[in-house]
Hints:
Layout: H1 9-13, H2 16-22, H3 25-33, H4 36-77, E1 85-86, E2 94-95, H5 107-114, H6 125-133, H7 136-147, H8 152-159, H9 163-183
Antiparallel strand pairs: 1-2
Helix pairs in contact: 6-9, 7-9, 8-9
Amino acid sequence: MAQHAQLPVESLASNPLLKCFLEEPENQRLYGAGAREELERRFADHYFEIRFLGFIRKHIHYEAQHLLRKTRTKQQIEPLWLNRTVGDEEGTGLEALDLIEDPAESVEDKVIARTDALEDITPHEGLHRALQSLSPRQQLILQLLFVECLTEQEAAEVLEISQQAVNKCKRKALAEIKRLLEAR
């Protein structure tokens, strides 16, 4: 068996991923106690969570960019008629001029603001099915954390449960999503 080279402690201490992982008191306790297997398992979960969150953020960003390109293309193709009535066919609706939105608001903000459900964020069929397979509680917690951008503590206050319960439910939901996506 090949021996692994020992890394200097200074290089490990400066690693931001490890710093973030060791900020949690339970991980510090396990590190001090030398519980290597449990620590490795917890680090694997932590690493998956970090990568999954990055994936979700990038996915939302690219979907917003795609929507922006689609919207701009549509605006170039279709002329803008400001005095055209929008609404019912009898002409009693609002004029298009009344419906002009604030240009200072970003497209990403508009998409997220109009999204009421976690499933509406992604057109990725596998992820959509995985999200639907979660329990309503898991879906609600993921929506509060990832769609409404609440912290675990804020979500816990909204749901009137502990922050640890929110974290546990989130981890289980992310693990289930990972399992379902890998099974594809």
